[in-house]
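Hi all, a correction to my earlier message: I attached the wrong file for Phenylalanine--tRNA ligase subunit alpha. Here's the right sequence:
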Amino acid sequence: MILEKIEALKVEVANMTAKNASEADELYVKHLSKKGDITLLMQDFRNVPADQKKEVGMKINELKQMCIARINELKEQTEVQESGDEAIDLTRTAYPIELGSRHPLTIVKNEIIDIFQRMGFTLADGPEVEDDLHVFTKMNFAADHPARDMQDTFFVEQSKLNDVTKNILLRSHTSSVQARVMDASQPPIRVICPGRVFRNEAITARAHCFFHQIEGLYIDKNVSFTDLKQVMLTFAREMFGPETSIRLRPSYFPFTEPSAEMDISCHICGGKGCGFCKHTGWVEILGCGMVDPNVLELCGIDSTKYSGYAFGLGVERITNLKYQVSDLRMFSENYTPFLKEFENAY
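and the right structure:
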C-alpha cells in the first residue's frame, strides 16, 4: 500500500505547476510541511515490515528530494517571469544609495594618528602573527613572565621552547613593530604603530580578546622624561580639549624604565569628581616611560649614546572616553543603529 502511495505522489510531483511564488509555497505546504503528504508517509514508515524498510526508505527519500527539486525549479521560473514583467523606466530618478559611515574606532584612530603626525611621528606597520623574539624577547620580558603563558597569549605554534624565533603567536601589543623598526634602522627614530592586538581574555562589557592599540616610539640623543611629558600633554589637550590636565603615576613595564600610567582630568566633570571618573577627577588613558636600555641593546642600538621614550594606548579606551560607550562589545558586533550614531562624528 505505501509503495503505491509513493508512486502516485511521484506522478503528482512530476506534473506540479505554479503560476507564481505563492502557489509554489502552497505546494511546499501540501507536500513537505509537518502535515504534508510526504511527511505523513515518513511517519507511516514505522509500520513497514523490517524486510521492506530499506527499499521503502530509499523510495521515500527519493520522492522527498524529487519534490524539493521540483518546487525550487518552479520558484526560479516564477521569479524569472515576475522580474521579466517589470518595465524598466530609464528616465526615472535613480534609487537613493544609502551611504555608510566610518566606524567609531576608525574615526578616533585617524584623529590620534593625525595629532602625532603633526608632531613629527611617522607610521610603521608590522605583522599580526608574530614570533616570540619581537613580541617578548626584544621587549625585555623575562623568560617566566606571565604574558608568555598560553593563558594570557594566543600561541599558534610552540615547536621549540628554547628558540624564540620558532614560537609563533598572535601579537599581544604593537611593541613588536617598534622592535622591527629598531632592528631595521638607527636613530633618530620617531614612529607610531597602530594595529590590532590579541589577548586571551574573557569577553565582557569592559574587555575583549582582540582590540586596537597605537604605540609610539622616539629615540635620539639626549631624549628625556620631560620630552615625553610635554608630548603627552600636547596629545591630551588636542584630543580632549585645551583645558585638559594630566598626571603621571609610577608604574612598571618590562620595556620602559622609569614607567608611568597617565591620567587625564575628567572631561565630564572638569576634574571635580563624578560617577564616570569614580569621583576621583581623573581617568587613566595610557602607559608610557623611558625605553629600557636593555631594549635598545637587544635591538642593536647603543644605549650609552641614545635614549628614548615609548607610550601605548588602546583605541577602544579613548573612544569610550570620547563618546561614553558603555559596552566594549558594541564596537565589533556590526549593530547598524549603533554605528549610525556616528555618521556626523567627523
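Sorry for the mix-up. The chain has a mean pLDDT of 88.
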